[in-house]
Amino acid sequence: MKRNIRILVLALSLIPAFLGICASTVSAGTSEVQQEIPIYPTWQLMNDEAKRQFTAGYIFGHREAVALGEVVVDYLKQNPNPSAEDVAKILSHYRLTLMTANQLVPLIDKYLEESENRQQSMRVIINNLNRR
What we know:
60% of the residues lie in helices and 6% in strands. It has 132 residues and is mainly alpha-helical. It is built from six helices and two strands. A hairpin with a 2-residue loop joins β1 (25-28) and β2. α1 packs across α3 (48-78). It has helices at 2-19, 40-43, 48-78, 84-88, 101-112, 122-130; strands at 25-28, 31-34.
């Protein structure tokens, strides 16, 4: 069980790479080039259970990306002519995704010590940790 949790944490820690947050980015004016991180080196090291856990984390990342997209759409509906800086402020909610799993897990553990926090989704937990 502990191994599965470690694998899930690994998978969740790779979500920022999927979202392009950790991808190498070079900006020149309005053009942007991103380098994709190949999955094969990690995939070949995983057994079937680890692959299922990783894929579950990947799907979770897609759901989180949809949630972020919905936040942006709602913001744009309320602010039809935002500046790029205004829209970029939304990304400040995701600064914890730049942390490693080794850094983030103890923060989540401490947060979940309080019983009233135990029914929250990972997205809500991360959002609340960002506010601290």
